[in-house]
Amino acid sequence: MKRFIYIILAAALAFSFSxxxxxxxxxGHKANIIFGINADNYTVERKEVASGESWGKILGAxxxxxKKILRLDQLTKDICPLRTIRAGAHYTTFTxxxxxxxxxxxxxxxKNIVDYVVFSFVGDSVxxxxxxxxxxxxxxxxxxVISSSLWGAIMEADLPYSLASExxxxxxxxxxxxxxxxGDSFTVIYDEKFVDGESVGIGRIWGAEFTHGEKQFYxxxxxxxxxxxxxxxxxxxxxxxxxxxxxxxxxxxxxxxxRSRLHPVHRVYRPHLGIxxxxxxxxxVHSVADGTVIFCGWGGGGGNTIKIKHAGGLExxxxxxxxxxxxxxxxxxxxxxxxxGYVGSTGTSTGPHxxxxxxxxGTPVNPLKMPQEPAEPIKAEYQARFEVVRxxxxxxxxxxxxxxxxPIGEEDIYPNRVVQTTVAE
Length: 425
Fold this sequence. Notes:
Layout: E1 3-7, E2 33-34, E3 37-38, E4 43-48, H1 55-60, H2 66-76, E5 90-97, E6 102-110, E7 115-120, E8 127-132, E9 136-145, H3 150-156, H4 162-171, E10 185-195, E11 198-212, E12 215-222, E13 230-232, E14 252-255, E15 258-262, E16 269-272, E17 275-278, E18 284-286, E19 291-298, E20 304-309, E21 314-324, E22 333-334, E23 339-343, E24 353-360, E25 363-365, H5 383-397, H6 410-413
Antiparallel strand pairs: 1-4, 2-3, 4-5, 5-6, 6-7, 7-8, 9-10, 10-11, 11-12, 12-13, 14-17, 15-16, 17-24, 18-23, 19-20, 19-22, 20-21, 21-23, 21-24, 24-25
């Protein structure tokens, strides 16, 4: 078990978390507040849950008896059930030396980097409360040029890794991330979250511009309906299309659509009427559009196979799956982006990959050349307000100084959100 022991003395420098606050006593003493607890005169230890440890074992080591642990279990069942203790998670103890032994007054379990739960054992009582560290939001704008991949560019520019996933989610209908070219670039405006000065992830994407080849794609956030934020092209067209550009992420194309390909197993030339995406076994596979499963089973050389029927005479196929996702069977209706299975190497295969296929009215078509129809554009009644948001986003992306176009906020992208106000009588 890793231990970081901090002896807290009245004259010591403050050991602070973002949840800390300071209070001054009558003599000007600055109390050291950690997780809302006055840490003066306590010994504070931050520890890590070891593999196989339980709360019974941890608390028992401090003399907390079964009766108190059972009471704690009742108090935490709707907040943080004791059985959900996770190896590797951190907890902090507040102990004091009494006449005969060390007494544990408080233990703080960190559910994640922001949320925590305080267990208190003062006297004969047991108490539980939830808390959160203070999260600082910083609005940022970053630009990067791609040399190999989106993820590579994110890492080279020392940007938050989660930004790559968010960008892929926004542009998954529009940009083929398997066809990224050196020199492609992007600029993105986003909120980054910090706890104690440490980055802990990102929040809202306020806008983006992605240059792919000679094409420029904007992503403008706007919600036509309450709670349904979507991203739009500068002309008001939806970035969402009938089909996703690809049925999975974080992979590479290992074999393209061909009427005559040397088969890697049979060593003869035959048509390969799909796209092979090499990916680790277990990588989630998503349905590229809404539709109904019409086949789910063993497909001979294709191994575990799923076929889905979509609107407009389209069918898609997903071959060599390791297994099917829970609930997927013939007749199941699936939605765009829903996980339907996992990459494998079943059937006639030399390694884990997904063989992805599309048929149009029964005829195989090249998925990489499939024309895309956009979803419904911005409605006429929202067009004027959307254009105001668009202009402000583009001005910020292009770093144009314009006092009349301040950065957008939540009230701009959610025009139907009702603001609660109190009216004095």
